[in-house]
Each structure stands twice: as structure tokens, then as C-alpha cells.
Design a protein that fits this description.
Family: Belongs to the ABC transporter superfamily. ABCF family. YbiT subfamily.
Strand content: 15-25%
Number of strands: 18
Oligomer: single chain
Organism: Prolixibacter denitrificans
Number of helices: 19
CATH superfamily of the largest domain: P-loop containing nucleotide triphosphate hydrolases
Keywords: ATP-binding, Nucleotide-binding, Repeat
Pfam families: ABC_tran, ABC_tran_Xtn
CATH class of the largest domain: Alpha Beta
Protein name: Probable ATP-binding protein YbiT
Length: about 650
């Protein structure tokens, strides 16, 4: 599909790619990984044709279509959401107009036997075939399904794009790319502006898509759920792993250990050779051997080792001052922006030591409530902080409060105390400030760099209530790991607004879901919440099916005498199939109940892992979770099939 052949790219004497070669196959789901600056986004730009390599080439078929979503995109104005989405179907719309024009000619011309008339018929036939091939009859339904999947309401469709924030406008661009149905998707951090539900919808879309996917993401769960192949870029080379991200991490560790062993052996050999040359350089009797060793050194293909992240770096929040038992409390609290009601009659209590996640679609009020907690917004009703609560708050605007004339090092040096002062450069390096970046002034840093600097600063301040709004948006995976470990060790109260499931996993024990201006509490971790949400939707489906079944009974009675009666054998087959499906449904429900019981029992064992083989326990736990998901999918399919067969039973 896409063939990368001896690709070489050089910037000012620095080799970003060194004659790399690999192939993207038609159904590949590739995650591009590597250190910041390794060239992941650059490679996507080369694939899309926006950047040309120094040498080598990227070979694609002639009619090949690419859908490219960069991290930062310029969006157009002057159209509604629906009008903008329709531009993804320019060819279909053009064909529609062409077919209409040709049909008009056929209707008005009377030279039925002429060559021109027959040529128009051929053109209409070809245009109609192409129109059907592109799915022309269903594209409005595709648009609606995609926009809703990405979080838009149907009431948004006729709103101007200028009414939406930058994140929502990026969703419109993503929708256009998905709707265009290209041969390959090139997606650079596609989840940055999506909530959990939209990310899950996008995962399912990409998993089922007929073309290829090449993506860059720092969302582990998203990579694991979408990709089946991982291509690592390191020191200008590529390493191709035919596995998802988590498996790649294990294999990479093994490869690095082998690489390090080879590197040490080579370094030892080089040192021994250099010592031999130095010792016998001026001895005539050893001149031949010395020259041979010098040539040997010149011919060595030296092994390079990518700089390893400082995994031993251990950042801890300072001990938090003790607060009262109630950290924050809201009763009958509401918030509106002019005529737009965002939160209505909210009752919520956060107690000391709680570890809370705010989740829900964008625009449902998560950040609004976080800002109310910070006492930044006015509201109606009752809401107050508890006794001796000292908040550490991270939001995107925190970056703008940094001293613009200070360097990155100065910002951290001002608040660092104790042993941390000796690790400032290591800490900055862990959050992607390396080399000269440490001495850059804040005013020349990018928005992402400022956000990371504000996060480091927050890590070092003694507070007892941390409120973090999308803290992982500008962090790579290593930085996220360091932050997550610090938060796991934090002894205060924690509130996270985030869509990163892997980051939230193990950090929170209470999830507040924001939906329809209300807030609903769910006890348990993020994956437990997502599992329950799936079950809730199945229960809703079951209730809906029961209602439909009642309606079908009425309709059957009304239509009892309509249409031909089934023969005895046909009715026998219907009854037999219904019995089989009912048995399958009963078995699926029993398995779901059994698996839920086992998982609940294992939750207790994981919470108190005395004398447990944790690796074996976690492996079994993961397998049981997967089995539960499969059984629930089986339950849903069987229910739908049973409903269809019951509808055939009209006697």
C-alpha cells in the first residue's frame, strides 16, 4: 500500500532518518512511537506529501487517498457544522449534480438514436455506478452518525463553526477526515480534544475500518485498543514490532537489554584496541599490528544507544497539611452562562483523602465545577471549601501566570527545597526540557512547554487538595508515568478532570459522571465505571426491547389474519429457533453473573494481595474482564436475534 524506500531526512547536518524502509499494508493499525523529537510527526507529514525527504521515496498507488489530521490545524469559517462536514463528500455532491444535469438532458432531448444521446446514457450509467460505489445514497446518515459519535448534538448541526471552541472545531476536521473514507488515516494525537465516550467511539470506528491506520498518540489505552503493529523511531532508525503498544514495551525492553550487552562488549573491545595501539604505537616490531588495529577501529560500525529515560527518578509531593474531614461541599448548586444552564441543583461532597475523577462529554460542566471549587466563578445555591483546605490547581491558563522573564530552571529553583534542589535538571528533563531548553526564558516557550513547566511547579508545592484539569494533554508517556507515580504517593485529596483512562486507572476510587446538567456518583475506579456504563446501556436496551415486545404483541393481534399463514413445519422451525436462542440467552446471563462474581472476588484479593502471585493474579483478572466483555456482546446479539424471531411468530 505505502512503501517507504531508503528514506533519508537531514536538518542542518542532523540526520532525523537514516535510510529507513518499511511497508504499510492495507489493514495495518500502526502506532508510531519514539522519544519526543524522534520524527513521528515529521514522518506523517512526509506520508501526506507536506514534506519532502532529502533522499529516498514514499511510493503510493496512483488513486491512493490519504486522510491526515495534524496536531494543529487551521480551520475555515463561514459554514455550519453540517455544511462543513458535507465538504468531505465533494465528489459525491459533484456526481449528484452531474447525474441531475445528464438526466435533464435525456428528458429534454428527442434524438434517441443519435450517438450523442447514447453517449449521455453511458455517462449517466458510469456516474451512477461511481455514486453507488462511494455510498452516495447514505452519506447524510454517515455524517449524522459520525458527528454524534464524536460528541455533537443534533441541535449543533446548524450552528456556525465559529460558535465552537478550538477543540470542537478539531472534531469537525476529524469528522471530515473519517467521512472521506481514505485508504489510510494519518492521525497525530487524535484524542487530545476528545472525551472518554468519543475516544471509545473512535476506537471502534478505527478497529472496524477497511483501510489502514497510522497514528501518533500518548494515550496507552487508545494505542492498545486500536493498533496491531508498533513502529519505533530511534536514532534515525526504525524498529518494527508486529504487536500492540503494551506488548511492544515488553519486547523493546528485551531488545534494549540485548543492545546494551552488545554495546558494552563493543566498548570493551574498542577500549582494549585503543590501549594496544597506545602501548605499542612507537615500537617498530609492533608497527604492522598497530596499523591493523587502527584500520579495524575505523571499520567498526559503532552501536548507538538511544538515551534512556531516567526511570529511577522519583518525584514526591511534599507532605500535605491536614484539612477538615469535608474538603468541598455543594448543595442545590447551579451555574448558568447567560441563558445557558450548565449545572442544575448539584449535590456533591468531597471528603479528605478522596481520589475523584470528573468525566463526561466536553461542555457538560466538568471544568466549570472545577473553577467553582477554585472560587473563580459565581453560582447559585450553596458551595464551600472545608477547613484549612489549601488547593493546588492545574489548568491550561496556569501556564500564563508564570514569570515570562524567568528561565525554566529559575521557575523550579524558586520553589524547590531540600534534596529536590539537586535534581532540578533531572526533573526538567523528565518533563521534556533537555539541554538548552532548561535555560530558555518562559516568554519563548510554546504553550505545551509552559503547561509542563506549570505542572512541575505544582509537583513541588505543599497543598492538601489537588485539582488537575486535563493534566496529561502535553505530556509524553514517560512524563505521564512520573506524574502518575507522584499522584499515587500523594497523601492529600485528589480531583482529576481527564479523558485518559490509563492515567486515571489506579489513581481514583470515585467517578463523578457529568450528563444533562447533573452529576452522578459512581464508586470504584475508571474501568469499573466504564464496565458498569456498558451494562447500564444493555439494561436500557433490555427495557426498550421489553417495550417493543409489548407493542409487537399488539401489532401481531391486529395483523393476525393479514398475509399468508405459515405451514406447520415452518412454525415448528420458528419455535425451535426461539427455544434455542432463549437457552443461549439464559446461558449468557449465567456466565455474566458468574464472571462478575469472580471479578468482584478478585478485586478484593487485589486490594489485599497477601501471599499472592501478583503477575498471575493480574493476568487472570485481565482475562476475566475480556471474557466478561465478550459475554456481554454475545448477550446483546442474542437478544436482538431473539427479538427478530419473536416478530415472525404471528400465531
Amino acid at each position: 500500500m505505502i512503501s517507504v524506500e531508503d528514506l533519508h531526512l537531514e536538518f542542518g547536518g542532523f540526520e532525523l532518518f537514516k535510510q529507513i524502509s518499511f511497508i504499510v499494508n492495507p489493514r495495518d493499525r500502526i502506532g508510531l512511537v519514539g522519544r519526543n523529537g524522534a520524527g513521528k510527526s515529521t514522518l506523517l507529514k512526509i506520508f501526506s506529501g507536506q514534506l519532502q525527504p532529502s533522499s529516498g521515496r514514499v511510493v503510493k498507488p496512483g488513486d491512493f487517498r490519504i486522510g491526515y489530521l495534524p496536531q494543529h490545524m487551521v480551520t475555515a469559517d463561514g459554514k455550519t457544522v453540517m455544511e462543513e462536514a458535507v465538504t468531505a463528500f465533494d465528489e459525491i455532491v459533484g456526481l449528484e449534480k452531474r447525474i441531475e444535469h445528464l438526466n435533464h438532458q435525456l428528458a429534454t432531448r428527442e434524438d434517441y438514436e443519435s450517438e450523442g444521446y447514447h453517449k449521455i446514457i453511458e455517462e449517466v450509467t458510469e456516474a451512477n455506478d461511481r455514486f453507488q460505489l462511494l455510498g452516495g445514497g447514505n452519506f447524510h446518515a454517515d455524517i449524522e452518525q459520525t458527528l454524534v459519535g464524536l460528541g455533537f448534538k443534533r441541535s449543533d448541526f446548524n450552528r456556525q463553526t465559529t460558535e465552537f471552541s478550538g477543540g470542537w472545531r478539531m472534531r469537525i476536521e476529524l469528522a471530515k477526515i473519517l467521512l472521506a473514507k481514505p485508504n489510510v488515516f494519518l492521525l497525530d494525537e487524535p484524542t487530545n480534544h476528545l472525551d472518554i465516550e468519543s475516544i471509545q467511539w473512535l476506537e471502534n470506528f478505527l478497529k472496524d475500518y477497511a483501510g489502514a491506520v497510522v497514528l501518533v498518540s500518548h494515550d496507552r489505552a487508545f494505542l492498545d485498543n486500536v493498533t496491531n503493529r508498533t513502529v519505533e523511531i530511534s536514532l534515525g532508525n526504525v524498529y518494527d514490532y508486529k504487536v500492540s503498544y503494551s506488548k511492544y514495551v515488553e519486547l523493546r525492553k528485551e531488545r534494549r537489554e540485548q543492545q546494551m550487552a552488545a554495546y558494552r562488549n563493543q566498548q570493551k573491545m574498542i577500549q582494549d584496541t585503543e590501549e594496544f595501539i597506545e602501548r605499542f604505537r612507537y615500537k617498530a616490531t609492533k608497527a604492522v599490528q598497530v596499523q591493523s588495529r587502527i584500520k579495524q577501529l575505523e571499520k567498526i560500525d559503532r552501536i548507538e544507544i538511544d538515551e534512556e529515560d531516567v526511570r529511577s527518578l522519583n518525584i514526591k509531593f511534599p507532605p500535605s497539611p491536614r484539612s477538615g474531614n469535608v474538603v468541598f461541599e455543594a448543595k442545590q448548586m447551579s451555574k448558568s452562562y447567560d441563558d445557558n444552564l450548565v449545572l442544575k441543583d448539584i449535590d456533591l461532597t468531597i471528603e479528605r483523602g478522596n481520589r475523584v475523577a470528573f468525566v463526561g462529554k466536553n461542555g457538560e460542566g466538568k471544568t466549570t465545577l472545577a473553577r467553582i471549587i477554585m472560587q473563580e466563578l459565581e453560582f447559585n445555591g450553596h458551595a464551600k471549601l472545608g477547613h484549612n483546605v489549601k488547593i493546588g490547581y492545574f489548568a491550561q491558563n496556569q501556564a500564563s501566570l508564570l514569570d515570562e522573564n524567568a528561565t525554566a530552571f529559575d521557575i523550579i529553583d524558586r520553589i524547590a527545597v531540600g534534596d529536590v534542589r539537586t535534581k532540578i535538571r533531572d526533573i526538567l528533563g523528565a518533563f521534556m526540557f533537555s539541554g538548552e531548553d532548561v535555560d530558555k526564558k518562559v516568554k519563548v516557550l510554546s504553550g505545551g512547554e509552559r503547561s509542563r513547566l506549570a505542572m512541575i511547579r505544582l509537583l513541588l508545592e505543599p497543598v492538601n487538595f489537588l485539582v488537575l484539569d486535563e493534566p496529561t494533554n502535553h505530556l509524553d508517556m514517560h512524563s505521564k508515568d512520573i506524574l502518575k507515580q507522584a499522584l499515587q504517593d500523594y497523601d492529600g485529596t485528589l480531583l482529576l478532570v481527564s479523558h485518559d483512562r490509563e492515567f486515571l486507572d489506579g489513581l481514583v476510587d470515585v467517578v463523578y459522571e457529568f450528563r444533562d446538567k447533573k452529576v452522578k456518583q459512581h464508586l470504584g475506579g475508571i474501568y469499573e465505571f466504564l464496565r458498569r456504563k456498558k451494562m447500564d446501556s444493555l439494561k436500557e436496551l433490555e427495557r426498550k426491547n421489553n417495550n417493543q415486545s409489548t407493542q409487537q404483541v399488539v401489532e401481531k393481534e391486529e395483523k393476525k389474519n393479514d398475509g399468508p399463514e405459515l405451514s406447520y413445519e415452518e412454525r415448528k422451525d420458528v419455535n425451535r429457533t426461539i427455544s434455542r436462542l432463549e437457552k443461549q440467552l439464559s446461558e449468557a446471563e449465567e456466565k455474566i453473573t458468574s464472571l462478575e462474581t469472580e471479578i468482584e472476588e478478585m478485586d478484593g484479593r487485589l486490594a489485599n494481595p497477601d501471599n499472592e502471585d501478583m503477575e498471575q493474579l493480574l493476568s487472570t483478572y485481565s482475562r476475566k474482564k475480556e471474557d466478561l466483555d465478550k459475554e456481554m456482546e454475545n448477550w446483546e446479539k442474542t437478544t436482538e436475534e431473539l427479538e427478530e424471531w419473536n416478530a415472525k411468530k404471528t400465531w
